[in-house]
């Protein structure tokens, strides 16, 4: 394992060291972090985590525990867990959050539609000017303005 110094932004000298000093954690954990408030080190692998007591250098009793239940709020074991079939260690968890208001969705649809309509009107107007020529009242206004200046 390696130890990184947040203050120095480098790896601490004397690392890497063997992971055998951490008794009770899984072999090849996916990651770990130290909780600054309670001083425990948490190791995780797959959908389980271990709470390691840094004072006595042992995993706390009752671990490993479920990340899904404790951190994600998922209730109870699934049917697959009851049957004894466990999913692979790499599990993708997708959480869909739908907290955008319906007015924001409506605005996100209406504004592009209005802009597209304005663009179509502009293209139609330019096309008409090219096809029929400039309207007479615009030409007359332009000439009369030149004479006046």
TrEMBL record:
Q: Where do the Hemopexin repeat units fall? A: 26-74
In terms of InterPro entries, this protein maps to: Hemopexin-like_dom_sf, Hemopexin-like_repeat, Pept_M10A_metallopeptidase_C
Tell me if Transmembrane helix is a UniProt keyword of this record. Answer: yes
UniProt GO MF annotations: metalloendopeptidase activity
Which parts pass through the membrane? 106-127
Alphabetized, the UniProt keywords read:
Membrane, Transmembrane, Transmembrane helix
A Pfam family in this protein?
Hemopexin
Q: Which domain of life is it from?
A: Eukaryota
| SUPFAM superfamilies, sorted | Hemopexin-like domain (SSF50923)
Q: Where is the Peptidase M10A matrix metallopeptidase C-terminal domain?
A: 79-149
The name on file for this protein is: Matrix metalloproteinase-16
